[in-house]
Predict the 3D structure of the following.
Amino acid sequence: MNDAFDKVFEKNPSTVGRDLKLNFKKLLEGNALDEKESTLALTAIGASLDLPELVKKGRARLGELDFSQEQIEEAVESAAIVGMLNFYYRFKHMVTAQSPEAADRYRNAGLRMTALAKPSLGKERFEMLAFAISVVNGCETCVAAHERTLREAGVPTEKIHDLARLTAVIKGIQGLINKERL
């Protein structure tokens, strides 16, 4: 996965490009996440940020790491289900922040989310993806809820922090990719 953005970095030899390249390399090589966790996260983040090359490389590497096709698809599709919930809970947070009594009007989301009940990746891995995608989508409520769930499950703070940092770096790299379209 280290070579996922080589072309992007070659086209952007600026200080910003170098910073993002070094941060990406550092987070892949010397962090609290193991290769399976970082590859799952990168695949889900890539799907969430519409980075098809990252998703393609993620799918291939997950296959090499002995993930089933169902688990690989779940990692990619997690961006869709968690993204839906992020946008809903951002709406709910915005409305209730301005009008606390609105919490009663929007008590039940009423959205089907059975995919979250028994994920093929396991609860902890799926929570890690949900956390990273929630960071991408900027859902304060969801980030806090998934961070708390991960801590309660015994996931070390360093892993949670590295997931957030990895997400931030990929968001920055997406900015370099988008720059070419401008």
The longest helix spans residues 69-98. The chain has one domain: 6-179. The domain at 6-179 is CATH 1.20.1290.10 (AhpD-like). The mean pLDDT is 93.
